[in-house]
Design goal:
The chain has about 400 residues and is of the alpha/beta class. It folds into two domains: about 325 residues, TIM Barrel (Alpha-Beta Barrel); about 60 residues, no CATH class. The chain contains 16 helices and ten strands. The strands form two sheets. It has an eight-stranded parallel β-sheet. It has a two-stranded antiparallel sheet with strand order 5-7. α6 runs parallel beside α7 and α11 packs across α12. The model has no long low-confidence stretch (mean pLDDT about 95).
Length: about 400
């Protein structure tokens, strides 16, 4: 093994996680049957541990079949916990499948059928119980069916009100049970619904402020979901960090304007992935680096493990690029010049009537500002040279 390959070898302290549904993806799509056999959850745990992952996350039905008896459920959980113990793997995050069952065809928390809304909350409470049993501390809510194909179906104000009702109830359940979960909403603009409620990070952050327990709830943004909407993912993550609401994050790759591809992290836009890694690491993010993605449908099982190893390796390579960027003398000098120009002679003060009056009468040299460039072309070229390995 070369020194470079060892440098990019994943270890548990890197806090890389995968979902049972990610490496366990069987390659079914709307036009094709499965191309890979299902993998047992305990086998997934063992394989990911050998690759250096920290943990594995899951939906309730990823582990326990929907129609399992109590005895079967207990056996499955017992065997899964034994695999976790044997490998040292963790379950940092859990979530509920509120999208596969035909009952959720019109949504779960926002279905027009009151029975379905009640069932969705019941199912989530049971799934929260399971997550705690497995050691999870973060609980994700992806509202994949919470939306519409036609606005004739429901008033979106009603849908959002039902969504709030469910989240408030589950927050109270979290408190009553003493679970101390951090809840994380996962935004997505569309697919499988034509339009999904809470489609972006900004929508989710605004919704959180309307909840009874906003401190308990944050976001779980995903690369592919923002990219589908044509947004800059790093900007959305920065907003979540600024609000103290980045409770979890989903890493993958995505081409703009396509269906939700969930490709290997960094495979589609290395530059964007670089700035995301830089943002997370410079901000001191301590949460999981979760890969919500899967191998190409063309792959067999061997390709699945290549995908998993490659996801982690790419993150570590980009982390190395961040260190090079942060240590590059010319780049840092240019950034220092930009900061000096941004800060001016002194920090801008809070408003006061006297300061406002003085500012209105101040002579500002806008003429030279109009003529001076910022040097971003050179800075971006230097960034590309770091990424391309020539600096």
């Amino acid at each position: 093994m070369t020194a470079d390959s060892d440098r990019f070898l994943p270890r548990p302290e890197h806090r890389f996680t995968f979902g049972l549904w990610t490496v366990g993806n069987i390659g079914r799509d709307p036009f094709g049957e499965p191309v890979r056999a299902p993998l047992a959850p305990t086998y997934i745990v063992e394989k990911l541990a050998t690759l250096g992952a920290y943990g594995v996350n899951l939906h309730d039905e990823d582990l326990i079949p929907r129609d399992a008896s109590t005895a079967e459920r207990d056996r499955i959980v017992r065997e899964f916990k034994a695999a976790l113990s044997a490998t040292g793997m963790k379950v940092p995050m859990a979530t509920t499948n509120l999208f596969t069952d035909p009952a959720f065809r019109d949504g779960a928390f926002t279905s027009n059928d009151a029975r379905v809304r009640k069932y969705a909350i019941q199912k989530t409470m049971r799934s929260m119980d399971l997550g705690i049993e497995l050691g999870a501390s973060t609980y994700v809510f992806w509202g994949g069916r919470e939306g519409v194909e036609t606005n004739a179906a429901k008033d979106p104000r009603t849908g959002i009100a039902w969504y709030r009702e469910a989240m408030n109830y589950l927050c109270e359940y979290n408190i009553a049970q003493g679970y101390n979960y951090k809840f994380a909403l996962e935004p997505k603009p569309n697919e499988p619904r034509g339009d999904i409620f809470l489609p972006t990070i900004g929508h989710a952050l605004a919704f959180i402020t309307t909840l009874d327990h906003p401190d308990m709830v944050g976001v779980n943004p995903e690369v592919a979901h923002d990219t589908m909407a044509g947004l800059d993912f790093a900007h959305g993550v920065a907003q979540a960090l600024d609000a103290g609401k980045l409770f979890h994050i989903d890493l993958n790759g995505q081409k703009p304007g396509r269906y939700d591809q969930d490709h290997r992290f960094g495979s589609e836009d290395p530059k964007q992935a670089f700035f995301l890694v830089k943002l997370l690491e410079d901000a001191g993010y301590t949460g999981m680096r979760h890969f919500d993605s899967h191998a190409y449908r063309a792959e067999d099982e061997a390709g699945v493990w290549e995908f998993a190893a490659g996801s982690m390796r790419t993150y570590l390579i980009l982390l190395d690029k961040v260190a090079r960027y942060n240590a590059d003398t010319e780049i840092q000098q240019r950034l220092a010049d930009i900061r000096a120009r941004a800060e001016g002679s002194e920090p801008f003060p809070r408003f006061s009537a006297s300061h406002a009056a003085a500012l209105k009468s101040e002579t500002i040299d806008v003429v030279s500002a109009r003529a001076q460039g910022f040097g971003y072309e050179r800075l971006d070229q230097l960034t590309m040279e770091v990424l391309l390995g020539v600096r």
